[in-house]
Amino acid sequence: MKYLLEVCAASIRSVEAAAAGGAERIELCSALSLDGLTPSMGMIHLVKERFPQLTLHVLIRPREGNFVYNELEVATMESDIRLCREAGVDSVVVGALTPENDIDLPAMQRLMAAADGLPVTFHRAFDVCRRPEEALEQIITLGCRRILTSGQAATAEQGIPLLHQLNQQAAGRIIIMPGGGVNAENALRILQATGCQEIHASASSIYPDGLKDTDPQKVQAILEALS
């Protein structure tokens, strides 16, 4: 079975490192210390130009904090999604919740309409949904392509039971992609135990300048473990 690794990259150096390590797909964002925010259009265009071999998924998240968005924030995300579509990205990564931690269906319907056929991943806002089984069905009905989730646990390894359950429930209707604390030592086990085929990792290290970015050796090690 062929497994796919998605590398989370929050800087140009991380994108370069992911490519050097052999990654085929990245989730591009900014401010990973804030759990990821929407990257600049300049960064998106540069990645498209300089790394055409990479499948490019772009995180759409206008601010840090919770996933409960007001009218102007939803409008901002709609605009960012349209710009990403015009830039030729391969997918966008979004999520919106109600104050009760259910899927915000009106907001998500607007974001899906802005995507206009562009594949959409529902991000780890899923991990705070109070009824994950119901949320899964709603996300499928919305037309999302995949869900990035740790199985509502601190790490994907700890979330294996729910990840397996969600993958069984999905039954091929949507991709369940484990993410959170993924490394070369546990990636294959997570995929084998859950039945999933895609996995998400930052594969990062602290560089000599003190910044935390993707490490090409860690990317390569995960890919070798999955092969």
Give an overview in words.
This protein is of the alpha/beta class and 227 residues long. It has helices at residues 12-20, 41-50, 71-87, 105-115, 132-142, 160-170, 187-194, 216-226; strands spanning 4-9, 25-28, 55-59, 91-94, 120-122, 146-149, 175-178, 198-201, 204-206, 212-214. The mean pLDDT is 98.
Record the strand order, biggest sheet: 7-6-5-4-3-2-1-8
| Biggest sheet architecture | 8 strands, parallel
**Structural class from helices and strands?**
alpha/beta
Q: Which descriptor suits the 3D outline? A: globular
Strands, total number: 10
Secondary structure layout:
Layout: E1 4-9, H1 12-20, E2 25-28, H2 41-50, E3 55-59, H3 71-87, E4 91-94, H4 105-115, E5 120-122, H5 132-142, E6 146-149, H6 160-170, E7 175-178, H7 187-194, E8 198-201, E9 204-206, E10 212-214, H8 216-226
Parallel strand pairs: 1-2, 1-8, 2-3, 3-4, 4-5, 5-6, 6-7
Antiparallel strand pairs: 9-10
Helix pairs in contact: 3-4
Describe the structure using short key phrases.
8 helices; two-stranded antiparallel ribbon; alpha/beta; 39% helix; 227 residues; eight-stranded parallel β-sheet
